[in-house]
Specification:
Helices cover about 45% and strands about 5% of the residues. It has six helices and two strands; from the N terminus they run H-H-H-H-E-E-H-H. The protein has a two-stranded antiparallel sheet. Helix 2 crosses helix 4.
């Protein structure tokens, strides 16, 4: 499912975003990460929706490359290489392309108003 989301975002980066994909997954009834974890442990799914931010975090995480993670960073082994737990969902080139597409959409927040606010630029 995550591979399909990544493929759709890379195929049409102008129209497909983590937000639109989270909405699509919710409409399709796909279990969110929290519900999937609950089902893995034999508990009932709570029906929690996918959030765009959680989907974005999954897509940008290096855990998708198969690495063991600690505090959002890959763990280095004794040999100086990252500790790999499994085969990744995609390769490094795809991961970098996803990062480029997803992070390029980040628009700085600006206050939209007809009035002039003195501290707006300083506060931002």
């Amino acid at each position: 499912m995550i591979r399909e989301v990544a493929r759709r975002i890379l195929a049409d980066p102008e129209n497909v975003t983590p937000s639109s994909e989270a909405a699509r997954l919710n409409r399709a009834g796909e279990p969110s990460p929290a519900d999937h974890l609950a089902m893995m442990y034999g508990k009932p799914a709570g029906g929690r929706p996918w959030s765009p931010q959680s989907l974005k975090n999954i897509l940008l995480s290096e855990a998708t490359l198969g690495y063991l993670m600690h505090q959002h960073k890959p763990v280095l082994g004794k040999d100086g290489n990252f500790v790999r737990l499994c085969e990744g969902l995609w390769d490094r080139a795809t991961h970098e392309a996803l990062k480029k597409v997803i992070l390029a959409r980040r628009a700085p927040w600006t206050r939209r108003s007809n009035r002039e606010y003195l501290l707006t630029e300083i506060a931002l």
